[in-house]
Amino acid sequence: MPAPIRLRELIRTIRTARTQAEEREMIQKECAAIRSSFREEDNTYRCRNVAKLLYMHMLGYPAHFGQLECLKLIASQKFTDKRIGYLGAMLLLDERQDVHLLMTNCIKNDLNHSTQYVQGLALCTLGCMGSSEMCRDLAGEVEKLLKTSNSYLRKKAALCAVHVIRKVPELMEMFLPATKNLLNEKNHGVLHTSVVLLTEMCERSPDMLAHFRKVRQLSSSQLVPQLVRILKNLIMSGYSPEHDVSGISDPFLQVRILRLLRILGRNDDDSSEAMNDILAQVATNTETSKNVGNAILYETVLTIMDIKSESGLRVLAINILGRFLLNNDKNIRYVALTSLLKTVQTDHNAVQRHRSTIVDCLKDLDVSIKRRAMELSFALVNGNNVRGMMKELLYFLDSCEPEFKADCASGIFLAAEKYAPSKRWHIDTIMRVLTTAGSYVRDDAVPNLIQLITNSVEMHAYTVQRLYKAILGDYSQQPLVQVASWCIGEYGDLLVSGQCEEEEPMQVTEDEVLDILESVLISNMSASVTRGYALTAIMKLSTRFTCTVNRIKKVVSIYGSSIDVELQQRAVEYNALFKKYDHMRPALLERMPVMEKVTTNGPAEIVQTNGETETAVLETKPPPSGVQPANQANDLLDLLGGSDITPVIPTAPTTKPAAAGGELLDLLGDLNLTGSPVSAPAPQIAQPPFLLDGLTTQPLFNDIAAGIPSITAYNKNGLKIDFTFERSNTNPSVTVITIQASNSTELDMTDFVFQAAVPKTFQLQLLSPSSSVIPAFNSGTITQVIKVLNPQKQQLRMRIKLTYNHKGSAMQDLAEVNNFPPQSWQ
Amino acid sequence: MIKFFLMVNKQGQTRLSRYYEHVEINKRTMLEAEVIKNCLSRSKDECSFIEYKDFKLVYRQYAALFIVVGIDQTENEMAVYELIHNFVEVLDKYFSRVSELDVSFSVSEIHCY
């Protein structure tokens, strides 16, 4: 076989390839040649082949067949072989491959080699990809090398030690004695790596940190003064050619030392005090004309903000940041904005001083800077500057890239909610956001806005007029159209009567309003949800408008055969309202009362507050999103449906029109969502306990934590008890367990009683069971609900006692349930 | 912590890549392509730090070659920026006026550095 080509030849050949396919072909050919060469066990050219393999690996082609070859190269005696072998090991191998353990012996031998370069190679490789087993085996060797006088080896050993500590934190103690003398070196390389090692130790273990902070009795100095001294030397010493970077002596070491000082000084007064002087010195003496100086200043500022520095120093730091902000260099401005974001929580007032510069950054062309400036601006908004800031932010919203719009819009809503100086301003701001970035607004903003609008009672006329004007021109932005249709539906009468005080009232006729709502319904751009809003709005207007009721009836009946099921259902129900229940229509479509802002979910309230307070539930959700109450209501009607109560209904509304509004609104919930109109109200009012039972078979919480596996708690003598779990996201210390007891024997089990006991840290509530007879052959089950309160989130354990009659004899059994899944109590 | 160190040219060809954390080989090419796309779309006036997924990219352009370093949140971006320049200066000294060709042909030597 001819000698394999050199790496350079290969690279040259690949460069001549003009397409990806050509390149792939060349590489495959070469790979085949390499593979056959490997098979021949050719020692002389192995090094060359592996080098080519590494190049191909870099280009993205698989090279795993070279791993063993790398090992062979490492074991060879030639330095060039070893070099490529170790490089290959670093690039191709990692912990996931089993082969890497074979390297351990080789590395061990090489760590004790006579040539320092070979030792260096071995240290490098171990530090790059050593697994925890390898590290454990070889840590002793590394530690020995850490103490040699050879600075080339010492610095590599220090970095290797960092890797060992990362992989096997328990070995940190072993390296502690060696670190004592590390900082006494003159060689910057060793100094640098030692600082890295110390930083890693301090970050990993609070014990180490404490150890390094306190005074050491025997040795001459503590760590902090030592570092301070080194730093001082670096700054004060004159020009030193080997460490100079643009006029500053070894900036990389300076930055590392500053970072270590930061870790040492965090939350520790003594250390912080020791550093104050040097930090001030660095901050004032460093030249800022070059980027290097700025890098050091940046690190200094970060350190000052993090430790317990005195206030003068903090002011100095913020001033430096302010100066950065005015710099022309983008990098520096970006860095300044990032650090200001970190400090705005603690030093709010100082940062406020730079507010105008920050706001100017919003207009910058650079995407990264704009994002930082936006976040910082939101952090700086407060009651005093909210008007000015909002103006700037709204202008930014107009002109920014789409990726920012969603975040910006949500930020503006939050800020407006917290600091709005007046309701009108708030509504104006919201309108502005909706019109400029309407399609990027998040979905949950719509109900929030609606609730806000209903709360500002005096602004209704103004709001609806502005919204109407907004969608007149353009009805493509869904959130805007949704809010607008809802408002027009509610306050259409105000719109038509031209009552607005705040603005010049518009002359709008009922037909025009209906025109716009119909066009929303017809338009292709409207989402299904939006159409639902529009249809409901049109329906509500049937009570508010006087002359166009026939038109509304027509529109509603058209949609009775719409393809969209949601629309069809609504239209059919509204039709029913017109035809059969016209007397109820005014009360049903009355104006919504002011909504309470709700933090818990509607259905939970249905469970606890049956009967008259169900109106509260509906008030907290605008009608279109009342899907959850549907589930519960469905149950109710399933249980109660079919009972022949129609005669009762007509009397109820006519006798108490005002109060009837309450119960009928209730009806509205059921009507809208289930379609079977009227059997609900009377039984609802008359039989609360029944409903509660019915409801307990459904999930009690709206926001169920997903999928907690159920367990079989007991299975003996034909009696099987299963536990299923539900937990609420809003109240995580309550777990609701539903037990189901089934009987697989041939005879029924009667008088079944289930009792449970839990450890003292829990509280238990047992609700009544569905029955006390378990039918045979698994033909039915008893269900019972247990509520467990677990405030300390401890492991759930339960002891259960079962008593029942079976085959004529009384049975009793005690059992302990320990196999609760972790999701049920964590 | 530095996650990776790349030298990619304007056409998207990787001249040098060093990963300090394990990344699948097919994901590497994708990562490199995306990174170079991000860098190419920036103008000269924009800053050299890009936020990409959950880490930051610090890049510097030298003629037709982009040197990109991926770092996480704990690193000082400006120090890394200087490090890139330092690295280039060393290469310059070693190869006496380094060019992209030198980098392509001497990959293994540069790795050892």
UniProtKB/TrEMBL annotation, chain A:
Subcellular location per the Swiss-Prot or TrEMBL entry: Cytoplasm, Perinuclear region; Cytoplasmic vesicle, Clathrin-coated vesicle membrane; Golgi apparatus; Membrane, Coated pit
Residue ranges annotated for the GAE domain, each copy included: 706-821
Membrane topology: Peripheral membrane protein
One GO term (biological process): vesicle-mediated transport
Gene Ontology CC, one term: clathrin-coated pit
Keyword entries, A-Z: Coated pit, Cytoplasm, Cytoplasmic vesicle, Golgi apparatus, Membrane, Protein transport, Transport
InterPro entries xrefs: Adaptor_Complx_Large_Subunit (IPR050840), AP1_complex_gsu (IPR017107), ARM-like (IPR011989), ARM-type_fold (IPR016024), Clathrin/coatomer_adapt-like_N (IPR002553), Clathrin_a/b/g-adaptin_app_Ig (IPR008152), Clathrin_app_Ig-like_sf (IPR013041), GAE_dom (IPR008153)
Residue stretches in coiled coil: none
Keyword Transport: yes
Keyword Ribosomal protein: no
Main location: cytoplasm
Similarity section: Belongs to the adaptor complexes large subunit family.
Biological function: Subunit of clathrin-associated adaptor protein complex 1 that plays a role in protein sorting in the late-Golgi/trans-Golgi network (TGN) and/or endosomes. The AP complexes mediate both the recruitment of clathrin to membranes and the recognition of sorting signals within the cytosolic tails of transmembrane cargo molecules.
Protein name: AP-1 complex subunit gamma-1
TrEMBL record, chain B:
Signal peptide boundaries: none
Domain AP complex mu/sigma subunit: 1-111
Keyword annotations: Membrane, Protein transport, Transport
InterPro entries in UniProt: AP_complex_ssu (IPR016635), AP_mu_sigma_su (IPR022775), Longin-like_dom_sf (IPR011012)
Keyword Acetylation recorded: no
Protein origin, superkingdom: Eukaryota
Subcellular location: Endomembrane system
Cellular component, GO, one term: endomembrane system
Function, in words: Component of the adaptor protein complex 4 (AP-4). Adaptor protein complexes are vesicle coat components involved both in vesicle formation and cargo selection. They control the vesicular transport of proteins in different trafficking pathways. AP-4 forms a non clathrin-associated coat on vesicles departing the trans-Golgi network (TGN) and may be involved in the targeting of proteins from the trans-Golgi network (TGN) to the endosomal-lysosomal system.
Subunit and interaction comment: Adaptor protein complex 4 (AP-4) is a heterotetramer composed of two large adaptins (epsilon-type subunit AP4E1 and beta-type subunit AP4B1), a medium adaptin (mu-type subunit AP4M1) and a small adaptin (sigma-type AP4S1).
Family: Belongs to the adaptor complexes small subunit family.
Protein name according to UniProt: AP complex subunit sigma
Species whose genome carries this gene: Zosterops hypoxanthus
Lineage: Eukaryota, Metazoa, Chordata, Craniata, Vertebrata
Gene of this entry: Ap4s1
